[in-house]
Amino acid sequence: MKTIVSGMRPTGNLHLGSYFGALKNFIRLQQEANCYFFVADYHSLTTHPNPTNLHQSVKTVLAQYIACGLDPEKATVYIQSQVPEVVELYMFLNMNAYLGELERVTSFKDKVRQNPQNVNAGLLTYPTLMAADILLHKADAVPVGKDQEQHLEMTRTFANRFNHMYQVDYFKEPIAWNFGNELVKVPGLDGSGKMSKSEAESATIYLVDEPSVLKKKIMRAKTDAGPQEPNSPKSVEIENLFSLMKLVSKSEVIEQFDKAYADCSIRYGDLKKQLAEDMENFIAPIRERIHEMESNTEYLSRIAKEGCDNAIASAQQTIREVR
Ligand code: TRP
Questions:
Q1: Average pLDDT for runs of 10 along the chain of length 323
Q2: Which of 131, 254, 284, 295 is the most buried (most CB within 10 A)?
Q3: Is there a single domain that holds both residue 276 and residue 260?
Q4: pLDDT digits (tens, 9 = 90+) for 110-125
Q5: Active site residue 138
Q6: Rounded to the nearest whole angstrom, what is the distance from the C-alpha of residue 292 to the centroid of ligand 1?
Q7: Nearest Cα to 308, choosing from 319, 296, 316?
């Protein structure tokens, strides 16, 4: 059986983009592979979050992952900082990670540009910590987005370098798992390309949004002046609303609005009302499970403990062998 490892930094409430972009795929993988999913809280420290917020965020995302269907019975779900072995492997890998190659990493250069006053060593060695996460369980594949591909390449470099240096055939070369054409685009509500944390709150749909909030956000989404002639192409704003509809509405409903757009009879108010209704139907059961989970702190700490025990067992074996 293949081993799959992936992690996500705790950034607060999950939004529709992270659900359809990543989580849904992880959830499918847990059925067929030996999966490790963890909350990458140490990675978050590179940008100096407020400690109280970070601790809260770890709990929030854990509850929300589980509510979305990540199954602790099938996958090992754990919190990075509870598995100290990762730090030891990070230290070992750092011995063979060179300044030049770390400085050339795109995500590092971006961070330096955005935040020149916080160029710390943790930020520089972000890719070694990530390699440690992955190699700790000798992963075969890592389901991540395109933006993480360079980090995966470095993980392979570090794995090979270790093997070469100690003349062993120990670490495998994990591949980045891209879901290719199955990747869905989840746009924001403000006409922007992508739903993400960095966009305005009003453009982002959270899985915990209450019905009234959800409705308000969708009803206020950007539109245009409407189709001026039959069969005209859709503007980005309208295309976005249709993209969101494709995630949550029935195909008949989408066809009906597509037709109305083509013959210029569409009323955007109706389109949004329908989208709001279908979105609410989609989100309601998830939101309910999130609330159940969040109030069930005992269950959450139990599964975090069990996940952590499993992860530590796997990690300790690696560390023993690496030493
Ligand atoms: N860097 C990843 C991101 O920002 C998070 C991450 C940390 C990760 N460690 C990992 C992803 C190991 C996959 C495997 O999304």
A1: 94 90 87 95 97 96 95 97 98 98 97 97 98 98 88 98 97 86 76 75 92 96 94 94 96 97 96 98 97 94 97 98 98
A2: 131
A3: yes
A4: 999 999 999 999 999 9
A5: no
A6: 27
A7: 316
Q: How far apart are the first and last CA of the chain?
A: 26
Q: What does the pLDDT look like over 32-81, one tens digit per residue?
A: 999 999 999 999 999 999 999 999 999 999 999 999 999 999 999 999 99
Query: Is 111 a residue of the active site?
Result: yes
Q: What's the CATH code of the domain at 264?
A: 1.10.240.10
Where do we find the tokens 């960095």?
198
Number of structural domains (the chain) is 2
Do 178 and 264 lie in a common domain?
Answer: no
- Atom 11 in ligand 1: residue holding the nearest Cα: 7
What atom of ligand 1 comes closest to residue 130's alpha carbon? 9
Q: Which atom of ligand 1 is nearest to the CA of 9?
A: 5
Q: How far is CA 103 from the centre of its chain?
A: 25
**Tokens at residue 313, please?**
């067992």
User: Does 305 participate in catalysis according to the annotation?
Assistant: no
Whether residues 235 and 308 fall in one domain: no
Kindly give, in sequence order, each residue whose CB lies less than 8 Å from that of residue 115, ignoring residues fewer than 6 positions away.
Answer: 47
Mutate to test the pocket of ligand 1, among 3, 6, 86, 125 (most ligand atoms within 8 A of CB): 6
Tokens matching residue 100: 């030049």
Q: Look at residue 42 and tell me if it is in a domain.
A: yes
> Ligand 1 pocket by C-beta < 6 Å: which residues?
5-9, 40, 43, 130, 133-134, 142, 144, 148
Q: What is the CATH classification number for the domain harbouring 78?
A: 3.40.50.620
Which residue in 227, 237, 125 sits closest to 191, CA to CA?
A: 237
Q: Whole-model pTM? A: 0.90
Contact yes or no for 14/153 (Cβ under 8 A): no
Show the domain range for 89: 3-186+297-322
Residue 54 within any structural domain of the chain: yes
Whole-number Å distance, alpha carbon 144 to ligand 1 midpoint, is 8
137-146 pLDDT, tens digit per residue, is: 999 999 887 8
